[in-house]
Amino acid sequence: MVLRILIVGGGLAGQATALALRKAGHHIQVFEQSHLTPEDTAGPIVHLGPRSNELLRSWGIDTAVASGVIIKQIDEFDHGGNTKDTGAVSPPGWMYYERSKLHRALLSAATASTEAGVPVEVHLRTEVVSVDSQAARVVLGDGRVFEGDVVVGADGFYSTVRKAIAQVDNIPIKDQKIAAQFSVQSHSGPLTQRFQYQSDRYEKWAGAGLEVHIYSAEPGRLLFECTLSAQAGTDLTSAWIKAQLVQAFENKNTELARILAALDIKDIRSWTQTSYPKVQTWTSDKVVLVGDAAHPFLPHEAPGTSQSLNDAAALAAKLSSDMKAEDIPSHLAAWTTLRRERLRTLPCFYASACT
Ligand SMILES: Cc1cc2nc3c(=O)[nH]c(=O)nc-3n(C[C@H](O)[C@H](O)[C@H](O)COP(=O)(O)OP(=O)(O)OC[C@H]3O[C@@H](n4cnc5c(N)ncnc54)[C@H](O)[C@@H]3O)c2cc1C
């Protein structure tokens, strides 16, 4: 049977799920509270392994058009700019993406009228305020009600859909985690020259207590990212972030130290996490959670997007178009078992989150 599927949240997990389920022959509507502008979908660089990139290609996404850069080499430096390690990436096929461009590619593929299947309908600036799991019904902030066969909660770390179906324990993180990002015009110096010479690489610089990753995300600009830890109660301003960065690389006459010293704090973006939801249940009746709504990752843990893509592919495989309506809850439960088993094997995943 062709299912009417309502997806709450149009981030990377929501768009990937919409695309995979459209390709499985279903009719999809996505409800997204933001405008999905590049500003709304910006975020830290996304690294994807060879299998996730293959999955994107199998959905018809041209990974190069989605701004994907095949990483050929990673060079590591100490805080004085001395090479610690350099090497080819293994296995080959790892790529990094600017988040908003990867998001745009998934959204375009999901809504394209030229592809097989019914184009996904995306309702922007549409907040879902409640969900009925037995009726597969969502209620919007403006009072409208939509009913389908399945509701997918892809509404992220602070999921509304999760509140309707799952018991959640908020686990405080000992040290708050802050992911910070900024970009600067290319300078003249050895760092800049290395990227001019070879852009399919990135660098890791180990400072005192933190590591900075450097990419050449756009021609003529270098992109810097790092994860910082801070004790509870710290005032996490951009000025504080800059001070940590400058301190980590100070006393060295390197191009990085000069870039950090000249950094305008208005150019720093940051994302902070202070607690961690441990989600006990991923499905109830006709509702299922995917992506960060089901299994949130902290900023220093990488694989949230790749696991979201795998959630989408596995869900599309379980919800085949020859299934019957009464089988939906058992198929969603089978999907949950499969995915929890997979996530348990990830060494970086917060151990108790899947138990
Ligand atoms: C700092 C950082 C670095 C990361 N680096 C990597 C990496 O290198 N590789 C990797 O694989 N993953 C990485 N991740 C993880 C990755 O970003 C996420 O796991 C992935 O994007 C999946 O997110 P999502 O779509 O589930 O949630 P989100 O991106 O949070 O999207 C949720 C969407 O739902 C919408 N929404 C929320 N509530 C409602 C509502 N009530 N009604 C309607 N819409 C709603 C939001 O507006 C949003 O668009 C990183 C995460 C962080 C924080």
TrEMBL record:
Residues 5-343 form the FAD-binding domain. It comes from the Eukaryota. InterPro entries: FAD-bd, FAD-dep_Monooxygenase_BioMet, FAD/NAD-bd_sf. Residues 1-18 form the signal peptide. Keywords: FAD, Flavoprotein, Monooxygenase, Oxidoreductase, Signal. It holds the Pfam family FAD_binding_3. Gene3D superfamilies: FAD/NAD(P)-binding domain. Belongs to the paxM FAD-dependent monooxygenase family. This is FAD-binding domain-containing protein. It comes from Aspergillus keveii.
